[in-house]
Each structure stands twice: as C-alpha cells, then as structure tokens.
Design brief:
There is one protein chain. This protein has helices spanning 4-29, 40-44, 108-111, 121-128, 143-151, 189-199, 201-210, 212-221, 249-269, 282-285, 298-308, 317-325, 340-354, and strands at 61-66, 80-85, 102-106, 135-138, 160-166, 229-230, 238-239, 273-279. The chain is α/β, with parallel strands linked by helices. The protein folds into 2 domains: 1-30; 36-356, Rossmann fold, CATH 3.40.50.1110. The strands form 3 sheets. A 4-stranded parallel sheet has the order 4-3-5-8, sandwiched between helices. Helix 4 (121-128) packs across helix 13 (340-354). The longest helix is centred in the N-terminal third of the chain and has 26 residues, at 4-29. It is globular and about 80 Å long. Keywords: Alginate biosynthesis, Hydrolase, Periplasm, Signal, Transferase. InterPro entries: ALGX/ALGJ_SGNH-like. One of its GO terms (biological process) is alginic acid biosynthetic process.
C-alpha cells in the first residue's frame, strides 16, 4: 500500500507538471511547427540527432509571415509572406529527383532562407530552363552528403554539380564524414523509414525534444530580438558581422581553396562537371554602409586562386555592383540573405553558363 504522504506528494507533483506536460504535447502534436518561430527555417529544421536524410521535416508545406534574422522583433523588421515545401527526403524542393542533370549543394542561400518557394535559386532555374533540365537542390549540405546518397542508391550522380556558399563560410573538404546523423546502411533503416513516413514520428520526436515553447517564453520575457548591426550610414540596413566580416581573410582563402580543390578532384574522378558559385557577404555588396573605405576583395582574390587550380567559378559580385549602381536592392534590409530579385539575377547568370554545356 502506498503511504498517504507519498500519495500527497504524487498528487501535488501531477498537479504541478500536468500543465507543462499538456503544453509540451500540444506543441508536438497540435500546434503547427512555426507557432513559436519568427521564420520557417527554424520551424522545419531538425534540432535532434534522430537519423534522417535531409535537414528539414519531410513532406511538409507551410506558409507564414516571416521577419529577417537580423531584425526580427525590432522596428526595422520587414514582414515577408513566405511559403516552404519539402520533399520526401527533407530537402526544400517540390519533389524529389533521383537522377538530376544539375545538383545544387550549398548553405542557407541555396536553401532559400527569407525566400518563398518560387523565389529560390532552384525554382528560378527550373523556370528559366522551361523544365528541360532536371534540377535538384540539397541545402544545407556538403559534398560528403551527396556522395553518401549516391553510394546508398538514393540518388544517381548528376551531370553538373553547382556548389554555392556565402563568402563568410568555409566549406569542409571531402572527408567521408556526414554533416547529419545518416542511418541508411543499417538493417533497421527501412523499417524505421516506413514507420516515420507513415506516422511522422521523426518530426514529432524532434518537436518534443526541442522545447521551442519554453525558449519562446524565455525570449519574450527577456524581449530578445534580432541582433543585426545597424549601419551608421543607413539605419534601415542591418549587417551580420559588420567590420568583422573581413577578419582572417588570408586564412579563409587558404581553407576555401583547399576544400574546393578536393571537391573538384572528386568530381573529376566521377566525370561530373563542377561549378563554384560564391555568394557575396552583404557587407561586401554594401561596403560603404558598413562602412569600409573600399570594397573587400576576398572574392576577386579567391577567383584568381581557383582559376590557377582549374576550378570554374561564377563570381556574381561585378553583376551585384552594377545592379546596385542602378539602385537595385539585392539583400533584405533586415536579413543577412539575398532577396528574390538577386536570386533571379544569379539564376539568369547560371542559365547562361548552362547554355554553354551539353547536359
């Protein structure tokens, strides 16, 4: 028999924890994934180490009014109506393509943070090519992730690999180590995939363990907001790193070149065309608003180094400079990422490159 004192303790414990437990379960099973977030990137991005293939919850379509990563919950926030759709493997595409002609791998720029589904680089390219090419996006991802999918029979190797990364990031060389906890080569994976696919268990498990409701409450109590650096020249323009964006440029040049040489070497061994598509930092494009006395030359120096290594690079900074001279806005003022207009410009440049290839 349970002692009266223990019964009273359990009763008080249940009374105290029941609302928390109910709120916790409600977040995972009732509320939409974006209920406690200011943008869909955090809403759909896995935060747990549950085995999966893509970085986002699969087979999901969501829309919301987002704000930028630099200015959310501030007076400089710009509301944007955004739609996201993920495919069966958890990548941001309308549907999975197992045998792509063109595969685009990269970071949050390629994934389309701050952009609606039809504004992403992949969507723009597919529209420009009229559906004549099978174009697929894996982002955020590394070359090792692509290799793993090919080796496990999920995807055939592409004819052209486009690797894109923003100037401030340094890609990993080919190492054979995955960027996510993949679990494709275990005997139990197919069973787990069927279970997850039928029940959505992987997404529910992830939502149960990320505690966004608590983090949201803490953020609102502490009045947390975007931590963008305000330009002293234009107070509406926010930056991620400001003058720190040019730090350790020489070391980054060396590391980026080393990584891309390993990418090119692998692609050559597999008869895959390789194109590097660097994205300029917002600070580089709007250097006079940071302010810098002159435009940082990192991308031009990198372009020269890569040409010496036989790596084809599409440097869009000159195009950005021209467009900015005409008054075009290329980045969201409250975000570190490009806007839909810039994505369209870059897609047009990539299309010109594709026209020179027989894919």
């Amino acid at each position: 028999m349970m002692q009266p004192q223990m019964k009273r303790f359990l009763k008080k414990f249940l009374l105290f924890t029941s609302p928390i437990l109910l709120f916790w379960i409600t977040e995972a099973f009732v509320l939409p994934p974006n209920f406690f977030t200011y943008r869909l990137w955090e809403s759909l991005l896995y935060s747990s180490q549950i085995p999966r293939v893509g970085p986002f919850y699969p087979n999901t379509t969501l829309d919301m009014t987002e704000q930028g990563d630099l200015g959310h919950h501030t007076g400089e926030a710009v509301n944007k109506k955004v739609v996201w759709k993920t495919d069966e493997w958890g990548f941001r595409n309308d549907h999975f393509i197992a045998n792509p002609d063109v595969l685009i791998i990269g970071d949050s720029f390629v994934a389309g943070t701050g952009l609606s589904q039809d504004e992403t680089l992949t969507a723009r390219l597919m529209n420009l090519t009229g559906g004549k090419l099978r174009i697929y996006s894996m982002a955020p991802s590394t070359l090792d992730d692509m290799i793993y999918l090919i080796q496990n029979g999920i995807m055939h190797k592409p004819k052209l690999l486009i690797f894109s990364m923003v100037e401030r990031n340094v890609p990993k060389p080919v190492t054979g180590e995955m960027s996510r906890p993949f679990d494709l080569n275990t005997a139990s994976y197919n069973v787990k995939r069927k279970l997850y696919g039928l029940t959505g268990f992987d997404a529910f498990y992830d939502r149960l363990t990320r505690f966004y409701n608590i983090r949201w409450a803490q953020a609102r109590i502490n009045k947390q907001q975007g931590r963008g650096l305000v330009s002293p020249v234009d107070h509406h323009m926010l930056f991620l790193q400001g003058k720190k964006s040019v730090a350790k440029a020489d070391a980054r040049l060396k590391s980026v070149t080393k990584a891309l040489v390993s990418y090119k070497k692998y692609c050559d061994s597999q008869q895959i065309e390789f194109l590097f598509l660097p994205m300029p930092n917002k600070e580089t494009v709007y250097y006079d608003l940071v302010p810098f006395p002159t435009q940082p030359d990192f991308l031009f120096r990198l372009d020269s180094l890569l040409k010496n290594e036989g790596i084809t690079t599409l440097n869009v900074l000159p195009l950005y400079n021209y467009e900015r001279s005409k008054g075009s806005l290329l980045y969201h003022s409250d975000d570190s990422h490009w806007n839909g207009y810039a994505a369209q410009l870059v897609a047009s440049e990539v299309k010109k490159y594709l026209n020179t290839k027989k894919l």
